[in-house]
Write a structure and sequence with these properties.
mainly beta; Maltoporin, Chain A; 22-stranded antiparallel barrel; disordered N terminus
Amino acid sequence: MHKRHLTARRAGFHISALALAIAITPLWAAEENATEHVSVVGQAASLDQALKEQRRSDSVESVVHADGVAQLPDQNAAEALQRLPGVSVERDQGEGRFVSVRGLGPDLNAVTINGTLVPSPESDRRAVALDVLPAELVQSLTVVKTLTPDMDANSLGGTIEVESLSAFDHKGLFYTGSTEASYDDNTEQTSPKFSGAVSDRFSLGDGTDNFGVAAAMSWQERDFGSDNAETGGAWDFEDGARLERLEQRDYDITRERSGLGLNFDYQADDYSSYYLRTLYSRFKDTETRNAAGVEFADAQQPGESGDAEGWRELKDREETQEVQSYVLGGERLMGQWTLNAQAGYSESSQDTPGHIAGATFEGNDDFADAGFGDTKKPRLNIGDDFYNPSNFSLDEVEWAEEDTTDTEKNIKLDLARDYDLAGHAAQVKFGGKLSRRDKDNDTDIWTYEDLGDYGLTDEQLSMDQFTKGQVDYSLDRFGPGLSASSIEGLIGGLDRSEFYNEEESRVNDFDMSEDINAAYLMHTLDIDDLRIIAGMRYEGTEFEAKGTGIRDGDYEAIEAKSDYHHWLPGLHARYQLDKNTQLRAAITNSVVRPTFGQLAPGFVIDGDEASFGNPTLDPLESRNFDLGIEHYLGRAGVVSAFVFYKDIENFVYNADLAGTGDWIDFSEANTFANGDNAKLWGLELAYSQKFDWLAAPWNGLLLGANATFSRSDASISGYDADSGSTLERDIDLPFQSDTVGNLMLGWENDKLSLRLSANYKSDYLYEVASIDDKQHDLHVDDQVFVDFSAGYFLTKELQLKFEAQNLTDESYYVYAGNRSYNAQYEEYGPTYKLGLTFTHF
């Protein structure tokens, strides 16, 4: 990295440099005497570079670097981050998507690309699903856990900083290209992937190598799927544990990722530098879901049987998410003053064109002698009639379109001056930032029902007319699948205006804006072996939401506004105990706005029942304490321990306000409310070491481990209709795992590199049920993922790579109340990859 861009690419405390070894695909030189090549490629080399940055940093951070061939270790950014201490990921269809930090859910963390915030393409969230970012476009991923006053204060767990490739990351001409094939064991599908990157420096004017251009691209199409058995938590616990309904689901998915990054760096002279960072990513997800289910006439225990209603359902949709980011900035040295300026524009969108959101076929009659076995992975026990399509008829088709856009524009200015204070080095820094964010959602829904009233015969509506082969479902017998094209052909002949669902369409539409004005002042002072950073940040927020509600059949336009102000002091300290040991401490404050789904202005009121968003919610506020020690163990070695504590106010939870305030006469009023406070505390441990002092071949051994142990305490309240009073109960913070850990064993020499790694995440609270019904809270069970990777240099520039992911065939399991009772069980199977990478330095 060019020295003039150190401020643009801020160094941080990489507490888990060992996690870098876990995360980076091992690479090493092909020739025994290739000393220069070894300096930029390999587990130990990348790890050592991270540790050098750690020793200079001012914040507590964890980092993953791309390796010497500009490759992150996993197929998307989220999976690369899961190796870091305190970091866990939410998985969708077996792939890592959303990132949690220190037990705080993804919506409570922020994501930036090249210094500018990334908005979310999903209509109801702030969290950014990092699988939209191909790993090849990313040079480094950093999780900042303690925020200095010059940083946005919009994260409780951490801010995830994404940096894309720069020409100053390499010396001279650099290019690389990769091709890969991956095999999904569950669907027996093979999928291709291609990626590449190139960078070079040029001499402009009187400068030498002062202008850099870097470009990276990636394309992948992955065919895979999963098998699912779920109850949704539909257990009756009043008379034992009896199941009310059961559904089987088969997913067939194609995901196409493509991305392009183009970056420019210009060193005008010894005092001025400028940069332009651009990134575009496209994520196209095509999903076909066949479902078959029953609802028992009387709730049953395993082994019992009775009458049940049956159904078949198809969902078929194509969804495209796009992320664009453009950042223009520069730095100017003016004597003792340093001026930094940056303007950023980011846009995320999600386009879901017209699709079958749900086509439901109901059984013509009840099915007799229906039952199930096993409460954890339930299997349906039912007669052959359930698998005969002539026993089902089309009941309803929901056709939907949705378009969401989220844009963020910002401009910021930072001014710093170095000076001497009583013989000690000091710096004063101040600046400001203006941020303007707009999010809108447009949904249209058509509900095709009562089709017999429109001239369609029983024969035309029979499921016989819409089948498409047998579903490949590994968990149980399933029967025939459904044809999307046949269903589309049927409803295509009807007048769609007759079926427009105005209520569902209008209530889900919204337009929200969020304007944030920020300013800060901070001071840095070095007193011998002690560095102190103290400062204050101000953030003022203006929020506006527009939407539509429906009250007993009548539509109402809704507009809500709010503004609030926060003064956020911060204090950081770093003390050098000896040459290889230092202490760190931080007291910080942060503020996070509720999700857009929670703030949504739309509502539905029908008689004495209501459901609505809450645009008047207060933001979440947190005071954070961090204290830790780190000791370096030579090249690529570190051992560290950190404790942290967070005192959180105004956390948001699902609430039923019936019987209180404006909802005193309602039996149901489901919305979101602020809790009083919550607490989170924990311990992070990390260790890594390269045993290069041992005799060969043991001198190629690397060992890494990290673990985070945390606990949380929160309380919620709600109205209990039976007692007519307000109740309270204690809960864990949603998405908070008590234990997250990684273990890595690696080995490398000049040609061969091996890595075996394991990632563990304990169970966590996923969804809170009603205030008096703890048994129906949903929890995600613990998971262990084991991966293996190997790399071998066929020549100095050509490497053969092999990876095996999810070797233990770990499943995804959600339970209601305790582990014995299924809410959702899903299997994915392992994935195997084989690829070639050519690199020129």
